[in-house]
Amino acid sequence: MKTEGWSTRRVAGQVDSSECAVRNYCEQWTRESTHARKTGSGASRKTTRREDRRIVRELDQELALVDPTVPRSTIREDVGVAIVPQTISSHLAEANLKSKRPFRALPLTPEYRQLCLQWCQARSMWNVTDWQKVVFSD
After folding, report:
1. Among residues 131, 63, 127, 121, which one has the least CA distance to residue 97?
2. d(CA 23, CA 120)
3. Where is this region: Disordered (predicted)?
4. In the structure, what pLDDT confidence band is assigned to residue 1 with cuts at 50, 70 and 90?
5. What is the mean pLDDT of residues 11-17?
6. How many CB atoms lie within 10 A of CB 19?
7. Distance between CA atoms of 16 and 60, rounded to whole angstroms?
8. How far apart, in Å, are the Cα atoms of 19 and each of 11, 13, 27?
9. What DSSP letter does each residue of the chain carry, written as one string?
10. Is 75 within 8 Å of 63 (Cβ atoms)?
11. Each residue's pLDDT tens digit, 21-79
């Protein structure tokens, strides 16, 4: 796109990236004739491959599938490897698992609260027989 004369802004919009990223990419291509990341770029791994497999196995078998709301600190203690919580999140992502933080309370909008109140008021005079005809689910 750049060789066709497109501006950096237009290319960034087309590929859904920032102008800075497109500019850096083009500069690297001009300098090195490649767009590959350099070896050794990024943070170094704090765990060995063996520990990585152990962490994923622990996450997969015991905690993440059984209870996805387990905090990362608990997972770290159970695995027995001295790692930061971000490493646990990375391993969860690599294993296609997700941890979920439970809601303290449902995020209700004022409009939804009003609708709930109206629903309850409309049924405030129902008796047991009326309620037995309702199926509840969460």
Report:
1. 63
2. 58
3. 30-52
4. confident
5. 85
6. 14
7. 34
8. 8, 8, 12
9. -TTTT--HHHHHHHHT--HHHHHHHHHHHHHHS--PPPTT-SPPPSS-HHHHHHHHHHIIIIITTT-TT--HHHHHHHHT----HHHHHHHHHHTT----PPPSS----HHHHHHHHHHHHHTTT--HHHHTTPPP--
10. yes
11. 888 888 887 887 776 766 666 677 777 778 777 777 766 655 545 566 666 667 667 66
Cβ atoms 52, 91 nearer than 8 A? yes
Q: Which two tokens stand for residue 14?
A: 């087309």
Please give the pLDDT value at position 111: 92
